[in-house]
Every structure is written in structure tokens, then in C-alpha cells.
Amino acid sequence: MSYQHVLCAVDLSDDNLAVAVRAAELARHDNARLSLIHVVEYVPIDLANELVLPHQQEIEEQLLKRAKKLLGELAGEMGLDVVSEIIVSGQTRSEIIQFARDHEVDLIVMGKHRKHGIFSILGSTANGVLHHAPCDILIVHIGE
Ligand code: AMP
Predict the structure, then answer these.
(1) Distance spanning both ends of the chain, measured CA to CA
(2) Fewest Cβ atoms closer than 10 Å to its Cβ: which of 33, 70, 119, 135?
(3) How many CB atoms lie within 10 A of CB 39?
């Protein structure tokens, strides 16, 4: 069985190049589509009143714009021309899972830092996706 649609979730830190390169290798090997997704998780401060002020919208727009630029650069560094770049805002775990469901993704590639002590038992993004994903997941270990 070969994969048809590989989704690589990136947090846009420097570490994610290794994760993206791994996803690209797998996609190339299987001749699969490759999508890169980044979720902008911006929580407006005034949640209690459900009031989103204009400057808060501006901040979110800036974050989305910055993410689009960085994701484009990452795709460039990987030397990939044909790749879908997806930027969405919301809760990271839910958005990754939703995109995978809606777009017939059959492999999600993510990174995971080696965490110690209390951090190793707290739910990470990778853990959250792992428990609800509709498809296979590859967790790429990132160094310390
Ligand atoms: P973390 O649990 O924050 O250490 O993140 C683990 C992995 O989840 C990262 O290496 C990425 O693959 C993915 N990830 C984290 N944050 C985001 C984000 N905002 N958008 C997309 N993927 C993310």
C-alpha cells in the first residue's frame, strides 16, 4: 500500500525543517501529494465578553501573513515546487485533524521533542493528534 496524501504539520520553528524533509521524502517515494499545514493559534484576550477588538484582528492577520511567508520559505528550502501550503487559525490539534478528514489525508507527519519530567506527561500537540487522527501518523523525533 502506498500513501496518496501526506500532511506535514509544522510549527515553523527551525526544528521543523527535519520533519518537513522526512515528509517530503515519504511523499516522493510514494508519489503522493504533499501538504504543509501551519495553525495560527491566537487567543484573543477578552474571551469572557466574546469581544474581538480591531487591534486583535490586526494581530491575527499579521500572524497569518507571517506564517504564510515562513511556510513558503520552508517549502523553498525543501526544494519543492508542487506542495500545498495551508495556513489556518484555530486550535492546532483540531485543525490538523479536521484538515486530514476533509482532504483524504492518509499519513500525517509531525515532530516531537524529547521532553523530560513533568513535560513528558503533559499532552503535546503530537499526543493530541495521535489519539484522534483518522489515518496513520509518523512522529519524527527532534533532538534536545
Ligand atoms: P509540540 O507538541 O508543540 O512540541 O509540537 C509537536 C509537533 O506538532 C511539531 O513538531 C509540529 O509537527 C506540530 N505542531 C506544533 N504546533 C503546530 C502548529 N501551530 N501548526 C502546525 N503544526 C504544529
Answers:
(1) 34
(2) 119
(3) 22
